[in-house]
Write a structure and sequence with these properties.
The structure is a single chain. With 72 residues, the protein is mainly alpha-helical. The protein has one domain (2-58). Helices cover 35% and strands 8% of the residues.
Length: 72
């Protein structure tokens, strides 16, 4: 009887560790998604006002912080 109880405790502990690792793995953190990576306006006139919108979303489960944006 004692042997079965020890085995049951061992199995329960193993399952607990497995599910804890699974939950930790499922937590993805922030994940950036952008609708397009670049946009080329082609040839434009001097002093022309142009606009392009990039939609940025966070598909992760934690806060996404954008610290730096670079344009060319």
């Amino acid at each position: 009887m004692k042997r079965h109880r020890q085995r049951g405790v061992g199995v329960a502990a193993g399952l607990l560790i497995f599910f804890a690792a699974l939950v930790a793995y499922a937590s993805t953190g922030p994940k950036i998604a952008v609708d397009k990576r670049q946009h080329d306006f082609g040839q434009v006139w001097e002093d022309a006002q142009l606009e392009c919108v990039f939609t940025v979303t966070n598909q992760g489960d934690e806060e996404l912080v954008i610290r730096h944006v670079k344009t060319t």
